[in-house]
Structures are given as C-alpha cells and as structure tokens.
Amino acid sequence: MVSIKSDREIELMRHAGHINYLCHKYLESKLRSGITTKEIDDLAGKFITEHGCVSSSLGYEGYPGNICISVNDEVVHGIGSNRKLKNGDIVTLDISMSYKGYHSDSAATYPIGTITKDKQDLLDHTKEALYAGLSKVKAGAKLGDISHAIETCAHRHKLGVVEELCGHGIGTELHEDPDIPNYGEEGVGLTLKKGMTFAIEPMLNLGTKHVCILDDDWTIVTEDGKPSAHFEHTVVVLDDGYEILTGE
Ligand code: MF3
Ligand code: CO
106 CB less than 6 Å from ligand 1? Predict the structure, then answer.
C-alpha cells in the first residue's frame, strides 16, 4: 500500500530531512584525505543524536553503522572501518534518520582532493539523473515516468544502471511501497498522488551494471571494480511538482 501523508506528517519528515541535509553539510566539511570511514561514521552518529534524531540505518536488519559509507567501486552499504580516504577517491555518504518516527533518506557522492575527469563526470551525471527523475514527479504522473527518465539520462552518458537496488516510498518506515527502479517504461505503473513521499536514488556505474556483495554481507561493489556514484533525495509529491525534504 502506498500511503498519503498528512500535512503534520510531512512537517515531521521535513524536519528529519532538514537535519539530514545539515548532517551532509557537516560531514562534507570534515572530508579530507587521511580521515577514516569509521571517524566519519562516529561524527555522523553524534550529529544525528545531538539533533534529536535517530539513525535509521543502525540496527536495520543488523546493519552496524550509523550511516552507509561507500568508497570508489563500493555502490552502497559500505561500513565505516579503519580505511583511510585518500586523494582521488570518491565517497558516498548515505544518511537515513528519523524524527518522532518519521524518516528521511539522502545520499551524495563526494570527491576527495583531485579526482579524474571520468569520476567527476560520473558524479555530475548521476546527480543529473536524480534531477531528471525528480523532474517527472507531480500528481497524475506515473511511477514509470521517473524510472524511465533516470534510465534515459544514465544511458545517454553510457553509465551502468544498477538493477538490484531501487528507490522507495518512505515515511513511518525507512522503506515503504512502492519500489522505484532506476529503469523502466514511461506511462506505466502507479499514478502519483499529492502527499506521497518517495526516496529517489539512482546508483550508476562507470562500467558494468553488474554488482556483487562482499564477505561482510553488506557492502555491494561493482563486478568490474570501476567506480559507482549515488545521489538520493526524499521528496513529497505536489499537485504541480515536488518538494525536496532533504534540502535546505
Ligand atoms: N539508506 C539506504 C537506502 O537508501 C538504506 C540503508 S539500510 C542499511 O535505502 F541497513 F544498509 F543501512
Ligand atoms: Co533510500
């Protein structure tokens, strides 16, 4: 079932989303070569708690981190460790938290120092794909319109679209109906209604779309070892568009 949120519920999600945004800005300011991913996770945990929110990732099906931190060929669900970031890396911070039981979810991939043009293009084009998907969001549109727009943008830039992982509804649960694949057909699927809330999140690869899972049973990596990027916002459907809840 795809729920419609009341104004009160959206206000709580807007708050969870704003703290999520501030957490991104805070962690971005701490990123530098030499910091370990565990240090980033610890900073995230403190920030979330000090702002009256609760990490939605910690303990999710046993997930051990406060946020997900994925480096280079890691697509999603990387766990903070003693790995040090270095110049030329890209790192995805995927932050989910709740406020009074309402969740927000937002991811972005950041450069460490100077990165190759290939990596910069991957970042730019994955963000572009997120906004291509968002541009389709409004009451009356179809879910497939979002998926198709993301896929079309990814393919125009010759990027691999990860098929095993999807965007999703979000609200009192981190993951609600519907699944929102990053590929699909225009004009098909669920009709969007005002007050639906979605986490839209293209995960795009510089090489193959195929992924595998590491021995930690969490970290998803690209099969060919090439880099991957991930941008995600939580949004609410409006009559004539959408509002980003994980923004300023
Ligand atoms: N934030 C992820 C998403 O975008 C989910 C993280 S769940 C975890 O849906 F357990 F891996 F943290
Ligand atoms: Co998500």
Answer: no
133-164 pLDDT, tens digit each: 999 999 999 999 999 999 999 999 999 999 99
- Residue 185 placed within a domain: yes
All residues at 6 or more sequence positions from 97 whose CB lies less than 8 Å from its CB, including other chains: 16, 19, 20, 23, 48, 53, 54, 55, 56, 103, 104
Residue 1 lies in a domain: no
Q: Give the count of alpha carbons within 13 A of 206, CB side only.
A: 20
b/e string for 120-132 if b means 16 or more Cβ within 10 A?
Answer: ebbbebbbbbbeb
CATH code assigned at 231: 3.90.230.10
Summarised one tens digit per residue, pLDDT across range 111-137 is 999 999 999 999 999 999 999 999 999
Counted domains in the chain = 1
pTM across the whole model: 0.98
Residue 2 forms part of a structural domain: no
* Mutate-to-test residue for ligand 1 from 61, 77, 170, 197, highest number of ligand atoms within 8 A of CB: 77
Q: Is the C-beta atom of 233 inside 6 A of ligand 1?
A: no
- Structural domain including 32 reads 7-244
Any atom of ligand 1 within 6 Å of the Cβ of 66: no
Which ligand has an atom closest to residue 76 CA?
Answer: 1
CA distance 99 to 12: 7
